[in-house]
C-alpha cells in the first residue's frame, strides 16, 4: 500500500470537511499525517517538588484538604483556589473561570493536576485536572504530543486522528533504510520510530525515535544531493585540462608574495579537479582578505595553458573593474588577453568585447551578470569562476555553466558559513577552504561609539590621513530622506569634505554612472583621494590595502554578515587598522550585533553568532535560498549526524550495492522517482 497516495479521508472520522482542515496544515495523504511530527511534548510524569523549576509546567499528585473557595470578578471571571498536600508540602491550586469544578473537589480526595508552577508561592496555575483514579492512572507518566495547528484544527483532535491513522495504517509503513545502516547505528525500525515520535512511552524511547528519524531525513537529503551531483558529472562529461605545471609554477613563483599554505592547498585541490575528466564543481570559501583573487588568477592561467578561455563573474561593476585591473597586471605579461564585460559599458564596447570572446581573441573575461546574457557566446570556455557567490541567486549559478562545453566551475565566497550550512546549501559541491590569512596581518581593532562622539571620530580620521593612511566612511543612504532619520552619504560627504580640508574626500554610491564610479575608485586606489564616503557599494571585494580606517555610520542598521564584509575592506595590508561603528541602537539585537563585532574578527564565529541571533531559516536572507526545511532534524543540534549521514550517502552513491542488493530497493525507487521529477523541474 502506498501511503503517499492514500488520502486522509481513508482515516475513520475524517470526512471531506476535516480533510480540508488538514489540507490547511499541508496534510493531504496518510503519509503526510504520519510525518506531521509534534514539536514538543507535554510531560505528565510526576514531578519532584524539591526540583520543580519556577515557571515550568509540571504534574503533581496529592491529597486535597480544606474547602475550595471561589472569588468572583464581575459576572464572568472567577478564581477558584484549593489546597493540596504533596510530598508533605502544602501547595495551593488555582483555577481561573472554572468555578463549576468546586463541587467536584472533595477534601481527602487524591487528584492529579498539571500546570505552570510558581515555586515562590508554592502555587500551581492548573490547566488540566484528573479526578478519577482511572483517569489518573491513564494520564500519569504520559508524554503528550503537541502539534503546531491553526484555527480550524485543535491539538486534541489531531492527536486522536493521528492515533486512529496508526491503528488503521501503522502496519503499512515501509522501511526505507537498508539493514546494514540500521544495525551499524542501532537505529529502530521506521514504523516503530514514527509511532513513538508521536506517542513516546518515555523520554529515552522518544529520543531514540527522534535519532532514527533525524538520521533518515539527513541521509535521504544527502543522498539526493550526491545523486544529483553524480548525474551532473556523468551525463555531462567535463574537460580534462592539460596543465603545463612548469609554466604554472614559474607564474606562482613570480607572484609578489609567497602563497600561504592554505592558498597552496586549495590551488592543488582545484588543479587536481581541473585535470580530471569529470567536471569540477567546487566552492572556495575564505574569509575576507584571505587572498582568493590570486587563487582565481592561478586557476585562470592554468586553464589558459590548457588552451581554454576563462571567465570571472562578479556582482558589482566596481569589483569587475578592480579584478580586471589586477588580472591584467598578473596575466598580460604572460601573453594573455584580458577583457571586461559589464552592463555599464557603451554598446559599441560591449559588441567589441563579445566579438572577441566569440572569435577567441580574448583569453579571460571579467564581468558582471552581463556575462550570462544570452547573446554572449564563447569560442571555448573551459573555466568559470564566480566571486562573492552568495550575492548571486541560485538560478544564476547554472546559467554561466551552460555557456561552454561544460566548463569547470569554481564558486568563491567570503561569507563564512558554519559547516552544516555549507553542507546543506552547497552540498552538491566540493568545498575548499582558505583558513589562514597572509602573514603579518593584524586583527582590525573595532570600537563601538555613540553618535555624540562624532567630532572625535573626525579627528581620528584626520590624524590617520596625515600619516598617509586612507579611510572609508559608510552611510546607509544616498540622499536626504524625510522619513528615515539616518545619515546619508551626500550630506556626510559635504560635512566631512569641509571639516577635513585640505584632505581630499571622495563620494561613491550606486546611483552614479559607471564611469564616474570607476574614476572615484581609481583615484582612491591611487591614494589621490584619502577618504571615501560611500554607501555599501564597496561592501564586497573591494581591495585598497592602504586603507586602514573603516567608519560605519548607523552601524546597527546593518546585519552582522554585512558589517563583517565592510570591516573586511581594511586590515588588508601590513598596517594596523581600525573599525569604528557609530550607532545608537534602537533594538536589543542592534546592541548584540555591536557587541559581537567588537568581540571577534573571526568570520566563522560571526556567522555562528548571526545564526543564533537570526535562526537558520533566515540565515541566507532572501538572496540565498536553497536551505532546506527539515521536519525533525535541527542543523544546530544534529551537526554530527549530518556529517555521518553525508559520508554514508557519499559512499553509497559510489558503490554497486545500491544496484544489486534487495534491501536497497526502496532507496533505488526513491532515487529514480527523484531523477524523473528532477528532469521535469530543471
Ligand atoms: P579576498 O579573499 O577577500 O578576495 P583578496 O584576494 O582581495 O582577498 O586579497 C586581499 C589582499 O591580500 C590583496 O591585497 C592581496 O594582494 C593580498 N594577498 C593575497 N595573498 C597574499 C599572500 N599570500 N601574502 C600576502 N598578501 C597576499
Ligand atoms: Mg575578494
Automatic annotation (TrEMBL):
Enzyme class (EC, first level): isomerase
Domain Helicase ATP-binding: 273-434
CDD domains linked: DEXHc_RecG, RecG_wedge_OBF
Swiss-Prot/TrEMBL GO biological process terms: DNA recombination; DNA repair
Residues in Helicase C-terminal domain copies: 456-612
Record has Plastid as a keyword: no
Keywords: ATP-binding, DNA damage, DNA recombination, DNA repair, DNA-binding, Helicase, Hydrolase, Isomerase, Nucleotide-binding
Coiled-coil residue spans: none
Domain of life per record: Bacteria
Transmembrane segments annotated in the record for this chain: none
Record's catalysed reaction(s): Couples ATP hydrolysis with the unwinding of duplex DNA by translocating in the 3'-5' direction; ATP + H2O = ADP + phosphate + H(+)
PROSITE patterns documented for this protein: HELICASE_ATP_BIND_1, HELICASE_CTER
GO molecular function, one term: DNA binding
Gene3D superfamilies cross-referenced by the UniProt entry: Nucleic acid-binding proteins, P-loop containing nucleotide triphosphate hydrolases
Protein's UniProt keywords contain Aminoacyl-tRNA synthetase: no
EC number: 5.6.2.4
Function, as annotated: Plays a critical role in recombination and DNA repair. Helps process Holliday junction intermediates to mature products by catalyzing branch migration. Has replication fork regression activity, unwinds stalled or blocked replication forks to make a HJ that can be resolved. Has a DNA unwinding activity characteristic of a DNA helicase with 3'-5' polarity.
Annotated family: Belongs to the helicase family. RecG subfamily.
Protein name (Swiss-Prot/TrEMBL): ATP-dependent DNA helicase RecG
Gene source species: Desmospora activa DSM 45169
